[in-house]
Amino acid sequence: MENTASIFGTGEARVRSMNARKFALWLFIISVTMVFASLTSAYIVKKSEGNWLIIEFPELFNITSVLIVISSISMHFSYLAARRDNLLNIRLGLVITGLLAIGFVVGQYFAWDKLVEQDVYFVGNPAGSFIYVFTGLHVLHLAGGLIFLFVVLFKAYTYKVHSRNLLSIEMCTTYWHFLGGLWLYLYIFLIANN
Amino acid sequence: MSVADIQITEVGHDDHHDDHHDQGFVSKYIFSTDHKTIAKQFLITGIFWAIVGGGLSLIFRLQLGYPDMDLNWLRPIMGDWITAAGKLDTEFYLGLVTMHGTIMVFFVLTAGLSGTFSNFLIPLQIGARDMASGFLNMLSYWFFFLSSVVMFVSLFIETGPASSGWTVYPPLSALPQAMAGSGLGMTLWLISMALFIASTLLGGINYVTTVINLRTEGMTFTRLPLTIWAFFITAVIGILSFPVLLSCALLLIFDRSFGTSFYLSEIFIGGEALPNMGGSPILFQHLFWFLGHPEVYIVILPALGITSEIISTNSRKPIFGYKAMILSMLAIAFLSFIVWAHHMFVSGMNPFLGSIFTLLTLIIAVPSAVKAFNYITTLWRGNIVFTTGMLFSIGLVSFFISGGLTGLFLGNSALDINLHDTYFVVAHFHLVMGSAAFFGLLAGVYHWFPKMFGRMMDEKLGRLHFWLTFIGVYLVFFPLHYIGIAGFPRRYYSFTSFETFSGFADLNTFVTIAAVVTFAAQFIFLFNFFYSIFGGRKAPANPWKSNTLEWTTPRVPQHGNWPGAIPKVYRWAYDYSKPGAPDDFIPQTIPLSHTPESNLPHEGELAKEEGVESPKKEKDKVE
């Protein structure tokens, strides 16, 4: 306390530490994390009670996982381009990210088809229902990210994203990496617990 | 880079903040983004819900206290919920209990308490123009409002409101054929709660962001008033626990509307077997109580924070153990997440697990006792000023102790087998959480009313309100311990058919009379509140001689809170009756270098580094 007191005495150092919007985004990410943490814990609790099915996951999940990882890379590419004021590469990175994201969503949809072919339905044993809930909720959050991405893309086309105005693309990148990480967590969780 | 951004905008704020108050009626009072207006909106809505929630409890208290009463006089409001014989409909009784719980826990003591005082006090006490995001803050209120509308509508539908208890355990809540209230009423309950969770998260994210990022110069974490610490920790708990309620409700929605089996398995109802297989109702309890337990701290912590502030101010003494108070709140917040299964001791859970949760639960008694002792030691030998806010704060401490003691019984997995789901539980949480938090809310309203509306509430009416409510609450809830130990289960419509319980009929009647009187006493408050908004005595700038920043604003702070620059902070919030000081309080805005007569040795050192001119030089300048 004494130390901080002597710092602000000079009138230079402020007590704040972070941009409020970025900080709020992190809090939002925490609350989303809690949703999925609780659902995956519910999965473990339910599984340990027995009456459970072993489900073979569609191969498609591997492909969509690769897609979302690449989209994270292209998003970061776009962010780095923004830092270097490479306006064309910002748009390029964002467009690639958006396309990959749409590919991911379509892939998830076909993966559901594959699950149905295996007689794993949303309505039935919770072992199957949980997969639909995990993937469905994740896609829902990804849809939010996609809207955010389009907003940033629009800003990029109106020259509002550059090295002196990084906030929106920074936040979008953070959220995007989170979405990718979240999917990998869910997929690895499902594989590990099967 | 971001730091620089904010500073630039804030300088702009300082420049033009005095002159743009000409907002339209709608943007000033309805869709306002000003934290003070939003706080008042939360308060008024909370008061409305408190009347509804309290009114519902009176109806079922009448049934319990006077089982033979002819209730036909309630027909004009309740319609067919009063049967032709003048009796309360049995299923609607369950609806009343459910709605009373839901309304009080979520709408009054979460939104009404946190929503009001976090919004009102955070910017004012940390020295900020407004919340980090005024828009999200407004959204938070309107989500709450929508949620309120949906919940209110559910009271009037033909099949009745949700009726499976405020904990909405499946399978009762999951199957529309199980009871009338599990139909549309339950659907509306879930919609309303989803909106409510959205509101709470938006609010909580805003509160945490604001406290961390928008504190004024000099307002370090160890100088924050304990109110802010309490709101901050409450918001963190909310951010971590409400999403879990959302997943819990989501799976219930899937079970109800899409036919999944998360919570349902092997059920035979109404002569037919349901197809649902593989689910588990215990899973719901785990998810629900992972929110549900932190929720009780979401309810009580803001009240404890408000009390800390009011007791210190009106004892004219620094709060005893400032850091111990913070640490105990942090400890309570942490422990709140690892004790949820003490609500589930009789759910068939492994007894070994039960003993672990017993141990963890009993540990909570330690930080809670630290807080109780600190309140008492703050009061000890203080120059106590018995304002109404102070009386309610002391009342809170009383409830917190007497209700907290029974927590030791209930937290014990062996004793809980006997006491579970009896009126003993009802007595416990109505004292420690319900009444205590309610008193925190009232204390806060009486204490900060002058800052909210620029006028004083009537102290005589306030004292009358306090004594009637304080005595009334004990008369209502203390007897419930006895009937709980005698074995009365919660949520039963009637006890007349049990020979064992006939000896307690008079006690139940007594409780009902006490409840009616206590409820009636609240109208004294309502009159005082609404009359004082318009006709109260005009408030001085700092009526309680308090140290915190909100009392440095004008009588009615306008948009932006401070005309001109935001004040700087040079000391903690609790310099009351400091030895050597001419006054018995030194506001946070007074530099240490202006008070050489009362500085402690290390403060004398700090004063030299403040970079503030000594008062003598300033005087020269004025002359």
Characterise the protein shown here.
Chain A has 194 residues and is mostly helical. Chain A has a single domain (26-46, 56-192), classed as Four Helix Bundle (Hemerythrin (Met), subunit A) (Up-down Bundle), CATH 1.20.120.80. Chain A has helices spanning 2-8, 20-48, 60-83, 87-117, 126-157, 167-192. In chain A, helix 3 (60-83) runs antiparallel to helix 4, helix 3 runs antiparallel to helix 6 and helix 5 packs antiparallel against helix 6 (167-192). The N and C termini of chain A lie far apart (51 Å). The model of chain A is unreliable at 1-13 (pLDDT under 50). Chain B has one domain (32-535): Cytochrome c oxidase-like, subunit I domain (Cytochrome C Oxidase, Chain A, Up-down Bundle). In chain B, helix 3 (35-65) packs parallel to helix 6 (134-154), helix 5 (90-126) packs across helix 15 (423-453) and helix 8 (226-257) packs antiparallel against helix 9 (281-315). Chain B is mainly alpha-helical. A two-stranded antiparallel sheet of chain B has the order 1-2. The interface between A and B is large, with 48 and 58 residues.
